[in-house]
TrEMBL record:
Belongs to the short-chain dehydrogenases/reductases (SDR) family. It comes from Pseudidiomarina planktonica. This is Dihydromonapterin reductase / dihydrofolate reductase. The keyword Oxidoreductase applies. Keywords: Oxidoreductase. It holds the Pfam family adh_short. GO terms for molecular function: oxidoreductase activity. InterPro entries: NAD(P)-bd_dom_sf, Sc_DH/Rdtase_CS, SDR_fam. Transmembrane segments: none annotated.
Length: 236
């Protein structure tokens, strides 16, 4: 009855996967959402997680995910809205499905999850939502207009739900910077990013995990956004 419960979206890879593993090691019951990244979630299942598949571009799939969580638990200590998709202007301008996905994944789905799971969050001793936004919510890139706008919407949702759900549920955000380069990032791109980052380092995933732990441990924080970016937001 005292076991803490978490739902992490986009848990199949990168930060979502590592965070879910960290929570499992702490003794959490973890609902690990994935869409297509099944390999990582299979590993989490072996470690005790409950895998939940949902396509965030399908309203029925989203509703099924919410229903499954409600069926399996009567409280939710932590909701991490981490799922993401990253498309530049050319991609969304030539493909309306990708344009819709950007806003569905980063704004619509977090809204629905927070709204419909608020009762479970309030039933926890210190229910907490952590939204993963981006440093570009404050200084948008003209190459990723839709993505930046959707993440800015999530930042606004953070503050709105922090007001609405207080004092029973806290809602905060993390704004990552150069945490972990993607395989397709070439040496020139990595060098350019490091030159624009005051701490001159690729952060890795542990600083993000540590920030989630900090937000969990400080019950007097809500409506806040914490940059975990090596200072890069100062340069963009």
């Amino acid at each position: 009855m005292n076991q803490k419960v978490a739902l992490v979206t986009g848990a199949g890879r990168r930060f979502g996967f590592e965070l879910a593993q960290s929570l499992l090691q702490e003794g959490f019951l973890v609902f690990a959402h994935y869409n297509t990244s099944k390999a990582g979630v299979e590993q989490l299942e072996q470690d005790g997680a409950i895998a939940l598949q949902a396509n965030f571009n399908d309203i029925n799939s989203i509703a099924a995910l919410i229903g499954e969580v409600k069926k399996r638990t009567d409280k939710l200590d932590l909701l991490v809205n981490n799922a993401s998709c990253f498309f530049n202007n050319d991609a969304v301008d030539s493909n309306s499905d990708k344009l819709a996905a950007v806003f569905n994944v980063h704004a619509l789905v977090p809204y629905l999850l927070i709204r419909d799971l608020a009762e479970l969050l309030a039933a926890a001793e210190d229910g907490l939502v952590v939204n993963i936004t981006d440093i570009y919510t404050d200084s948008p890139s003209t190459d990723y207009i839709a993505y930046c706008a959707a993440k800015a919407g999530l930042a606004n949702l953070t503050q709105s739900f922090a007001k609405q759900l207080a004092p029973n549920v806290r809602v905060n955000a993390i704004q990552p910077g150069p945490i972990l380069f993607l395989p397709e990032h070439d040496d020139e791109h990595r060098k350019q990013v490091m030159e624009q980052t005051p701490l001159k380092a690729e952060g890795g995933l542990q600083p993000m995990i540590d920030t989630v732990r900090f937000l969990r441990s400080n019950p007097f924080l809500t409506g806040e956004s914490i940059k975990v970016d090596g200072g890069r937001a100062l340069m963009i």
